[in-house]
User: Fold this.
Amino acid sequence: MPVESDEDLLIFLDSDEFGAEAEYRARGSDEACPVPGIFDDEGSNWNPNRWSGTEFQAQMGASVTSTGPTFLCRTMDLQRGGRKGETLIIKGQEYRIEDKRPDGTGMTLLLLMAND
Assistant:
Protein backbone atom coordinates (compact mmCIF):
# COMPACT_ATOMS: atom_id res chain seq x y z
CA MET A 1 0.00 0.00 0.00
CA PRO A 2 1.48 3.36 -0.99
CA VAL A 3 2.23 5.97 1.64
CA GLU A 4 1.26 8.89 -0.61
CA SER A 5 -2.32 9.54 -1.65
CA ASP A 6 -3.27 10.13 -5.28
CA GLU A 7 -3.39 13.85 -4.48
CA ASP A 8 0.11 13.73 -2.96
CA LEU A 9 1.48 12.17 -6.16
CA LEU A 10 0.31 15.21 -8.16
CA ILE A 11 2.98 17.31 -6.44
CA PHE A 12 5.66 15.38 -8.33
CA LEU A 13 3.89 15.79 -11.68
CA ASP A 14 3.33 19.56 -11.69
CA SER A 15 3.73 20.87 -15.26
CA ASP A 16 4.86 24.26 -13.90
CA GLU A 17 7.88 22.55 -12.36
CA PHE A 18 9.35 19.56 -14.22
CA GLY A 19 6.25 17.65 -15.25
CA ALA A 20 4.41 17.60 -18.56
CA GLU A 21 0.78 17.21 -19.49
CA ALA A 22 -0.17 14.58 -22.05
CA GLU A 23 -3.40 13.92 -23.89
CA TYR A 24 -4.27 10.27 -23.39
CA ARG A 25 -6.54 8.51 -25.85
CA ALA A 26 -7.78 5.06 -24.92
CA ARG A 27 -8.35 2.52 -27.69
CA GLY A 28 -11.82 2.88 -29.19
CA SER A 29 -12.32 6.34 -27.74
CA ASP A 30 -12.36 9.61 -29.66
CA GLU A 31 -12.05 11.60 -26.46
CA ALA A 32 -8.62 12.64 -25.19
CA CYS A 33 -8.11 13.06 -21.44
CA PRO A 34 -5.38 15.22 -19.89
CA VAL A 35 -2.85 13.25 -17.87
CA PRO A 36 -0.12 14.89 -15.78
CA GLY A 37 3.21 13.10 -15.73
CA ILE A 38 6.94 13.22 -16.28
CA PHE A 39 8.10 12.85 -19.89
CA ASP A 40 11.61 11.59 -20.60
CA ASP A 41 12.87 11.37 -24.16
CA GLU A 42 16.44 10.27 -23.69
CA GLY A 43 16.23 7.61 -26.36
CA SER A 44 18.88 7.00 -28.95
CA ASN A 45 18.28 6.10 -32.55
CA TRP A 46 20.81 3.95 -34.33
CA ASN A 47 20.67 3.77 -38.10
CA PRO A 48 22.70 0.84 -39.52
CA ASN A 49 22.91 2.65 -42.88
CA ARG A 50 25.12 5.26 -41.21
CA TRP A 51 27.55 2.70 -39.81
CA SER A 52 31.03 4.23 -39.55
CA GLY A 53 32.92 1.05 -38.61
CA THR A 54 34.77 -1.33 -40.88
CA GLU A 55 32.96 -3.54 -43.39
CA PHE A 56 33.70 -6.57 -41.17
CA GLN A 57 32.16 -4.84 -38.13
CA ALA A 58 29.07 -3.91 -40.14
CA GLN A 59 28.62 -7.56 -41.17
CA MET A 60 28.99 -8.73 -37.57
CA GLY A 61 26.14 -6.49 -36.44
CA ALA A 62 25.97 -4.42 -33.31
CA SER A 63 24.28 -4.48 -29.96
CA VAL A 64 22.13 -1.41 -29.37
CA THR A 65 20.55 -0.43 -26.07
CA SER A 66 18.12 2.46 -25.73
CA THR A 67 15.82 3.70 -23.04
CA GLY A 68 13.45 5.33 -25.53
CA PRO A 69 10.80 7.86 -24.57
CA THR A 70 8.87 7.20 -21.36
CA PHE A 71 6.03 8.83 -19.47
CA LEU A 72 5.56 8.37 -15.72
CA CYS A 73 2.03 9.06 -14.49
CA ARG A 74 -0.51 8.09 -11.87
CA THR A 75 -2.10 4.73 -12.63
CA MET A 76 -5.54 6.11 -11.81
CA ASP A 77 -5.28 8.64 -14.69
CA LEU A 78 -5.17 5.89 -17.31
CA GLN A 79 -8.79 5.07 -18.19
CA ARG A 80 -8.16 1.47 -19.12
CA GLY A 81 -4.74 1.06 -17.65
CA GLY A 82 -2.57 2.28 -20.55
CA ARG A 83 -2.88 -0.68 -22.89
CA LYS A 84 -0.47 -1.33 -25.73
CA GLY A 85 -1.47 0.60 -28.85
CA GLU A 86 -3.20 3.45 -27.04
CA THR A 87 -1.81 6.92 -27.67
CA LEU A 88 -0.42 9.92 -25.84
CA ILE A 89 0.19 13.34 -27.33
CA ILE A 90 3.04 15.11 -25.55
CA LYS A 91 4.36 18.51 -26.64
CA GLY A 92 2.60 18.13 -30.01
CA GLN A 93 4.13 14.71 -30.79
CA GLU A 94 1.99 11.57 -30.88
CA TYR A 95 3.34 8.47 -29.14
CA ARG A 96 2.06 4.89 -29.07
CA ILE A 97 2.18 2.96 -25.79
CA GLU A 98 4.39 -0.08 -26.28
CA ASP A 99 4.52 -1.35 -22.71
CA LYS A 100 3.51 -0.34 -19.21
CA ARG A 101 5.21 -0.94 -15.89
CA PRO A 102 3.09 -0.24 -12.81
CA ASP A 103 5.30 0.15 -9.75
CA GLY A 104 2.77 -0.86 -7.09
CA THR A 105 2.71 2.59 -5.47
CA GLY A 106 0.06 4.15 -7.72
CA MET A 107 2.45 5.18 -10.49
CA THR A 108 2.92 3.62 -13.93
CA LEU A 109 5.84 4.00 -16.33
CA LEU A 110 4.72 3.89 -19.96
CA LEU A 111 7.28 2.90 -22.59
CA LEU A 112 6.52 4.84 -25.76
CA MET A 113 7.23 4.74 -29.48
CA ALA A 114 6.86 7.85 -31.64
CA ASN A 115 4.12 7.65 -34.27
CA ASP A 116 5.85 8.96 -37.38
Summary: DSSP finds two helices and six strands in the chain. The longest strand covers residues 93-102.
